[in-house]
Amino acid sequence: MSYIDFLKEYGHRFLDGTLVTAEQFFLATLLAICIALLAGLMKLSRNRLIRGVAVVYIEFFRGTSLLVQLYWIFFVLPLFGLTFEKFTAGFVAVGMNLGAYGAELVRGGIQSVPKGQWEAAYALSLSPFKRMWRIILPQAFVNMLPPWGNLLIELLKNTALVALISVSDLMFEAKQINGSTFLSAQTFGTALIIYYVLARFVVTPFMRWLERVMRRKLGRA
Amino acid sequence: MMDEDFSQYPLELTGDDIPMVRFSRVSKRYGALTVLDNLDLDVAAGEMITIIGPSGSGKTTVLRMLMTLETINEGVIYVDGKPLTHMEKCGKLVRADRRYLRQMRAQIGMCFQHFNLFPHMTALENCMEGPVQVLGMKKAAARARSEELLELVGMADKRDQHPARLSGGQQQRVAIARALAMRPKVMLFDEVTSALDPEVIGEVTTVIRNLVDKHNLTMLMVTHQMGFAKDISDRVCFFFDGKIEEQNSPEELFSNPQKERTQQFLSAVKEAG
Ligand SMILES: Nc1ncnc2c1ncn2[C@@H]1O[C@H](COP(=O)(O)OP(=O)(O)OP(=O)(O)O)[C@@H](O)[C@H]1O
Ligand SMILES: [Mg+2]
Fold it and tell me: What is this entry's stated membrane topology (chain A) (predicted)?
């Protein structure tokens, strides 16, 4: 079977899988951003308890394996009465894990905003919330875009693990196709290329574009 | 923290002739280092006070305490008769909560050495931020006020530029407009020309001179520009080691300093040019 024939035969399944991967990526990213923001801010709180919760969260999710976390969410939590669809369990695990990494980026981004900005916002009597939301976070956001680009590519690659709980993503489809055709080189080669293309020609250009837009907003472009 | 007793301080200042700002036995310490030592200072409404003194003498600290950027260790500051960082509770002064602090500091505007404009906002947006977000003004009204102030500082034509596109002098003028947009009773200037190239210092001092001449603002200014201080101040305070070593009208203090340390400082400054 030529590679062209192979693609004709199985192309649509790769496509279906890619769409599921894209969905997993998108939802996990949204979740990771929310968690990163929340945990990052909590880690900067003056309240020791709030800070402690964030530290425990970040340590736990960074310090243990994503695969084990995924299995916990899908297989163990139901034993405590908390059941997730496999699709949900997939992106929740990935999002929670990468969110822990993102929290450190948020914290670092906020701390990289010069002290003078805090003081100017304070001198204007902005409330603590507005100071953070309107003055500090927009600047922190620009500073942390480059490392977020790396993190999102990491996240994309990590979504492949959801195949292990039978979410029918790209990796899952590839394994299925391989199981029935034994054309390992073609199958996993195709999957490899698709992941690469998504990372290199979708995620990265998008982040670059976002960086440019944000720099223009800062009048730095 | 120890139980603090502020009973020797009045709950508020009364009478016809209350100062706009009063430092009443104010001390500031960082660990063992006493930066301000029992400072007493009255600033009358509409008065322009310049603070000079050697590096580390506590000049910036005075302004930052008034902006409530630094906490007070001892003493009370009054602004327009009301305690700045204390409030009344059961007939006694206690440390104020954040809300009260925020209300009080809205009456005070500050300009910094490094301008600290918000880089993600245009000049106009920088000026509108306080009126809209703090004073709750309608956008149109805040815009009108901000445009007027940008006009006042000669920056009307650059109102849609981001700070990154402005020179230091231009940024500082916008920063002055931004502070003024809050209609503060007291304006603080901390070495606002120190970070500027010599050729643009004039455009900022002109703006400040204008404020002194045409507006009845109370101002405290820290500067190393003795000529400027001499020109526009009503009073000059020479700080040394966290205390006011000498204060007087600019004519007197500059031409006829009484204390030896003042003389030394002024001649050292003169030599440095
Ligand atoms: N956050 C801080 N922690 C410890 N010490 C501080 C702090 N801020 C200021 N100081 C010290 O307080 C003293 C007074 O500082 P301040 O900034 O008021 O001096 P200044 O008169 O403005 O000096 P300069 O002319 O250099 O600006 C200095 O000895 C300084 O080192
Ligand atoms: Mg200083």
Answer: Multi-pass membrane protein
CB contact under 8 A, A123 and B110: yes
Question: What pLDDT does B8 receive?
Answer: 85
User: Any idea what the Cα angle at residue A25 is, between residues A22 and A31, rounded to 5°?
Assistant: 145
Complex ipTM value: 0.93
Closest CB to B120 among A119, A128, A139: A139
How far is Cα A100 from Cα A170, in angstroms, rounded to an integer?
Answer: 25
Instruction: Calculate mean pLDDT across residues B176-182.
Output: 97
pLDDT at position B1, please? Answer: 47
Q: What range does the domain containing A197 cover?
A: 3-217
Q: Give phi and psi for A2, each to the nearest 5.
A: -75, 165
Residue A77 sits in a domain whose CATH number is 1.10.3720.10
Question: H/E/C letters for each residue in chain B?
Answer: CCCCCCCCCCCCCCCCCCCCEEEEEEEEEECCEEEEEEEEEEECCCCEEEEECCCCCCHHHHHHHHCCCCCCCEEEEEECCEECCEEEECCEEEECCHHHHHHHHCCEEEECCCCCCCCCCCHHHHHHHHHHHCCCCCHHHHHHHHHHHHHHCCCHHHCCCCHHHCCHHHHHHHHHHHHHCCCCCEEEEECCCCCCCHHHHHHHHHHHHHHHHHCCCEEEEECCCHHHHHHHCCEEEEEECCEEEEEECHHHHHHCCCCHHHHHHHHHHHHHC
Q: Flag if A122 and B69 touch (Cβ within 8 Å).
A: yes
CB A28 within 8 A of CB A159: yes
According to the model, what pLDDT value does residue B6 have? 82
pTM to 2 decimal places: 0.90
Cβ–Cβ gap A218/B112 under 8 Å: no
What whole-number distance in Å separates Cα of residue B95 and Cα of residue A34? 36
Tokens of A162: 């959801």
Q: According to the model, what pLDDT value does residue B59 have? A: 96
Write out pLDDT tens, residues A156-177: 999 999 999 999 999 999 999 9
Which amino acid is residue B197, in one-letter code?
Answer: D
pLDDT band at B3 (very low <50, low <70, confident <90, very high): low
* Among A117, A128, A219, beta carbon nearest to B116: A117
Q: What is the mean pLDDT of chain A?
A: 94
> What is the tally of structural domains in chain A?
1
